TrEMBL record:
Ribonucleoprotein as UniProt keyword: no
Alphabetical list of SUPFAM superfamilies matching this protein: Homeodomain-like
Name of the protein: TetR/AcrR family transcriptional regulator C-terminal domain-containing protein
Cited PROSITE patterns: HTH_TETR_2
Ranges annotated as DNA-binding: 25-44
Domain HTH tetR-type: 2-62
UniProt entry keywords in alphabetical sequence: DNA-binding
InterPro entries documented for this protein: Homeodomain-like_sf, HTH-type_Tx_Regulator, HTH_TetR, TetR_C_Firmicutes
Amino acid sequence: MKKTKEIIIDAFWQLLEEKPFNKITVQNIVERCALNRNTFYYHFQDIPNLAEYTVKLWADEIIQNNYEFGSPMTCLSPLVEEFIKYKKAFQHLYSSSQKDEFITYMNHVALHIVKMFMKQSSHYVSRSEDEKETLTHFYKCLMIGILIDWLECQGDYDLKLFVEKIYHLIDSSSQTLL
């Protein structure tokens, strides 16, 4: 059986798929969960606090479930799949007053994913620390840039196909980066 906190989080994401972030109220959430307001406030200070907590939880789950990656561009795959899965919710978060916090979390997630890849990849063992740092920053920026562009375009192109094309272009044209 799900814990109360998980039920609140699920209701929040469901609502975020349905309407903009700033239109979601505590009342909407507790009605969806069949809980009272005090229960919500026992777990979360307010809706921005809930949003922050859930994005961090989401990011931690992506990292934990995808610890081993094959190549730098495949680091992006777990994020892409989650973004597609919750497209409307991410669009609502991106266009909300929480946009800056959301982008900050995404930067942390992307950086963490790329760093984890770098630690495991035999391609980077012989690189200098400066080169590793430069490549880490490059791939993190690439990941976030792609995701932000997709959100800016209202998700009107096939994100997964776009990422696959980028991977093949980078892989075929620059084996030295990989």
